[in-house]
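Protocol step 6 of 9: fold each sequence in the batch and record its structure tokens directly after the sequence line. For illustration, a two-sequence batch is reproduced in full.

Sequence one:
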Amino acid sequence: MPLESFKDHWDRALSHAKADPSRFSLFLNEEAEPEHGEKAHWFPPHLKIEMLDSPILNSKVLDALEDPASLTKHRVLTYAPVGDASEAVFAGRLRHEIRHGEQYDALGNQILMLGDLTDRVLRLRVGGLANSAPYYSLQPLELDANAASAQFLRESYGEFVDQILESDDGPLARSNTLPGDLRKLPAKCVAFLYLFREEAMSNESPAKEIAIDAILGSIAPELNLIWNELEANS
């Protein structure tokens, strides 16, 4: 299906975010959506994308994402919806991924590094275990993006919210509160990592022989101070 078929959902999501449409591009994988696994992905501007970066990618989509005209934009990739309820989910996914773009615009590369760190530590805790998706949704960057999508869905697709909440896409609508201050996200990521302190400090962690506070300090100097304060007061 052509992108024009879903332009209204895309425009609504961008408008809700008060985002500049010229800085975001939407891409669709027109293959059948898998029952499980990743359903949407955001790629930051200028990032070189590799096929292994997301299971949604295929060669056709990758070529489009890597087109020079798109490289300077936030690139959102998802599957084409089928049916009204699916279109509401589709819209929620768009708003979620646009929020990741907002996070990046506010905080830059530290958000990419913190997101990677929380994801890798979490995989040590629950990776490969059945029904572990709720852990993933509790990562601060995901909680924030889901709060944005939930607000958007309630305001623009309210008749579908209950149905979405009962589906695998429930996290997109599962927030009673609005997204918080983007500037607080790095500290929230450190606090989240501290919930998994043993994993973050284990020999199998992303830190390995390097202290976790040093890794955090390399991302932003104040983050190792937050970690050390948690250590000192726990």
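Sequence two, same batch, same settings:
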Amino acid sequence: MPVKIDVNKELGALEICMAGDASVFEWKGILRRSLDIYSRQGIAKVLIDARKLARPPNAIELFEFTRMLPGVMQFAIFISNWSDKDILFLETVAYNRGLNVKVFHKRNDGIEWLGLV
């Protein structure tokens, strides 16, 4: 499956993995599930690993992705081959929507930013 979600009990966070040709529709479903986990378990910190996506999302996909993010949660997104322009676009759109989102190249940096260490 191109998108999966797990609860990392050790960190007290949700972990979402996106791989291959995961579509915006799959992202939407997994984010809906993350909100359900938040409402049942109170887990508000999310690690999104997008390093295994077949290609970086385009601007429209990034815009739609931020529209789907629940505002009650904090998201650290791990990437590998995105342009600086795409990173800035995602973070700016998220910020303008009042979301707590940051993009990282290193997993440990995102974990630290979420305050999970």
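Proceed to step 7 once all outputs are recorded. Observation for sequence two: The helical segments are 24-41, 59-68, 84-96, 107-113.
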